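U., I forgot to send this yesterday:
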Amino acid sequence: MRISLLLMAACSLFLAACNDSPEPKTAAAMPPFVKTVAVLGSSEATLGLSGTVRARVESPLAFQVGGRIAKRAIDAGQSVRAGQVLFALDTRDLTQAVSAAEADLAAANAALATAEADLVRHRQLETRNFVSAQALERVQLARREAQTRRDAATARLVQARNGLGYGQLLAPAAGILIEVTGEPGQVVAAGQPVALLAQAEEREIEVYFPQGVTPPEHGEVLAADGTTLPLRLRETAGAVDPQGRTLRARYTLLERQDALVLGTVLRTRFAAQAANEASFTVPIGAIDERGQGPRVWRVSEGRAVPVAVSVLALDGETARIRGPLVADDRVVALGTHLLSDNMPVRELGR
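Result:
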């Protein structure tokens, strides 16, 4: 009886092992689901962008000679007047350079005096036929060389004294120091910026426009107190920024320039360029920017296709764009960073 039970258990294990085959693998992974939305045509007649308050003239400040910073007299955000001392270098080497130049000039003056005395004697001797004309000519050339050396020594002394004066960095104009990077004890090279001065002149609004949008001549900026200030275009960059694919423009403020704080980001508004340039509204999550400029992913025949667009305006939830789209085109609303060109996808239930 026990043997029969053992035989039955062995048969059961054998049959179970025969039936324990691996589950069949899926032939191919199914395309992922994506959430899509239909693009909406926009009837807005204005273009809203962010603008930054800047000074018309922003001067990087640097020493004209190299050396070690011995004194820093200012801090970032401080107002300065024209001619105010901002930094001072250790001037010991510069002082020695002036002393050396003065010694060279003294030697050059002595050599010139000797050459002039020789010339006087040779002229007297030449009139009495004691020396030849060639000897007199050599002395004249020696005197001319001594004069030239004296002029060169004088110029080097002027340069050395100028260098000693360059040991102090003075404010070239009145304004506000936006940034200060130089520190006491730091060794700087000639021309190395140690501060950035926003000169107390006109205030401007710097705006970056999407590629393909020409900056309008006029616009307005919304100040912090809710008032609007008119703008007038002053300059436009000569080329599109290769990274952001945007075009920089500077607008002059026509009113209340002193009321705006440097570096403040404000909203600007500009009239639309042309009524026939259609724009569309999509969720912000539909905008994909991965180093190739802004684009959206249109779903067509079960595949995601990238479409390059220009971003005209942004708000809390939506973006207004312009590009080769038509109303009711369906675009991917979320997870665009996971998509690749012509990738198969499945739309979620609408």
